[in-house]
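Q: What changes when magnesium ion is included in the input?
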Amino acid sequence: MQRRIVVIPGDGIGKEIIEATLPILTKAAKTHGLNLGYTTCLAGGAAIDAYGEPLPQATLDAARQADAVLLGAVGGPKWDSVRPELRPEKAILGLRKELGLFANLRPVKVSPIIAPYSSLKPEVVTGVDILIVRELTGGVYFGQRQEAAEVDGIVSAWDMEVYSQPEVERIVKVACQAAQGRKGKVTSVDKANVLATSRLWRKTATETAAGFPEVALSHMYVDNCAMQLVLAPKSFDVIVTSNLFGDILTDEAAVLTGSIGMLPSASLGQGTGLYEPIHGSAPDIAGQGIANPVGTILSAAMLLRYSLGADAAAEAIENAVQAVLEDGYRNADLYRPGMTKVSTSEMAGLILAKL
Ligand code: NAI
Ligand code: MG
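A: The predicted holo structure follows.
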């Protein structure tokens, strides 16, 4: 049976990193008995140029019918002046919403090879292996809001945070399932000393995790978590948290590794999963063949793991990446004297050869 993958290169370096990644995804899948069929679709700025809209219906329909979507990045200065509802970034928000992608998974791993690039001491970050599970379709980003309005001469605005029990339950389940294949530790992050939504979150997390006896759940306030992430990042295994807290903590955790070009992500729902590197379209280096493709290549590994159940194929890609880095090959973003500097396509070729 052929598995359908929708590929959205997008804008800027998106095309280069996707082109570099596809042969690796194809080979890893094939080696493990999977036959992939790709459909390339437009979204973001490229779709605005072609169709006058960031997320064409054809792209959405193809994504809905696919097993998974692999996305490069969208956006760039060329489209900065278009109307807000037509911005390229609407494509990502639209895909998340339409595909019901409520769980955002961001692994943050620091091997001895990338530890020297971290802003923290190598001994603090070497060996970090955290999976952050962020709720993606609820909370304050989706609650009722009031833009600045004047009431009795005073201008006010508000945003409402709402979480329902089923919303918390399903995201905590994702975290617990992920922890089962890891160290079995889930830290649920909230602000239950202040917020009602967080108290419901904490209660629901406790009840949900009770269904996973082999998983150890603990709770942490978000301010403490922000501190612990830089003090003792190795103490974490899986972190599960709300949309807003997750937005902030994932960026904080990402810089532990010192390179935005290395990190993958997965967004999961009931159906099609979406996989993309955490960085944007990097217009400053687009078209030069120097972008680091590893974040996208590791996103392809997540695709194999979470959408196709091909854990061995995912691990094969992750091991190949690690082996090439161990051999001293670096893209420009991680280059240091003594290493071998390679282009986007050369890095991908080396990883492909290791598979
Ligand atoms: P960015 O992540 O594109 O770039 C930030 C810095 O990191 C730049 O100096 C860039 O050259 C560098 N960088 C990023 N990825 C790299 C890679 N793979 N290899 C080497 N260096 C890399 O963020 P920025 O500049 O804030 O945004 C640029 C555009 O991307 C904007 O239009 C923004 O809206 C969009 N964007 C799209 C995202 C997506 O599609 N999911 C996510 C974030 C931003
Ligand atoms: Mg963010």
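Observations recorded in class: Residues 247, 251 surround magnesium ion (ligand 2) (CB under 6 Å).
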